[in-house]
């Protein structure tokens, strides 16, 4: 088995972590888009800017926007926030019945946005917290070969 030193291992993490971070960022971006649409939705419905449904969209939508942005920025560090976004998405799904939305379009919007947030947050939650839980490089946590060791050739084999 040959180990190749590549950019991911030089940064101290295995390549699959980079793949998981990309997946987390894509789903977090979808959550951000849905949260933005939820946040601006009160302005699309004439006369609801003073309504409790508007405040719901602004407060919950604003929180979902901030969480999604944090997950876009540092997916591993902010993995626990995906659970919070999942809860906020569930609230958005249930809020038409709890708050009592008057307009059907608002209720449908809230339910659809909530479902997108829940699904996207659960998908983005798939990143592993333990990769970012320590300041130690990944190879030190796992006992793998240190790819930055100058005595190693560019390609190292553990069986030599």
Chart the SSEs and their pairings.
Layout: E1 3-4, H1 7-10, H2 15-44, H3 52-73, H4 81-100, H5 104-124, H6 138-142, E2 155-156
Antiparallel strand pairs: 1-2
Helix pairs in contact: 2-3, 2-5, 3-4, 3-5, 4-5
Core attributes:
single chain, 160 residues, mainly alpha, two-stranded antiparallel ribbon
Structural description of this entry:
It is a single chain. The chain is mostly helical. 64% of the residues lie in helices and 2% in strands. It has 6 helices and 2 strands. A two-stranded antiparallel ribbon has the order 1-2. Helix 2 (15-44) runs antiparallel to helix 5 (104-124) and helix 3 (52-73) packs antiparallel against helix 4. The longest helix is centred in the N-terminal third of the chain and has 30 residues, at 15-44.
């Amino acid at each position: 088995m040959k180990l190749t030193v590549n950019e991911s291992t030089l940064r101290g993490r295995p390549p699959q972590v980079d793949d998981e971070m990309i997946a987390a960022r894509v789903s977090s971006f979808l959550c951000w888009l849905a949260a933005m649409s939820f946040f601006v939705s009160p302005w699309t419905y004439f006369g609801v800017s003073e309504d409790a449904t508007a405040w719901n969209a602004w407060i919950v939508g604003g929180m979902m926007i901030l969480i999604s942005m944090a997950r876009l920025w540092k997916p591993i560090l902010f993995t626990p926030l995906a659970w919070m976004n999942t809860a906020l998405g569930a609230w958005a799904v249930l809020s038409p019945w709890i708050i009592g939305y008057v307009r059907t379009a608002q209720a449908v919007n809230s339910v659809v946005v909530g479902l997108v947030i829940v699904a996207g947050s659960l998908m983005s939650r798939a990143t592993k917290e333990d990769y970012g839980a320590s300041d130690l490089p990944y190879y030190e946590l796992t006992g793998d070969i240190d790819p930055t060791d100058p005595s190693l050739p560019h390609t190292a084999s553990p069986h030599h």
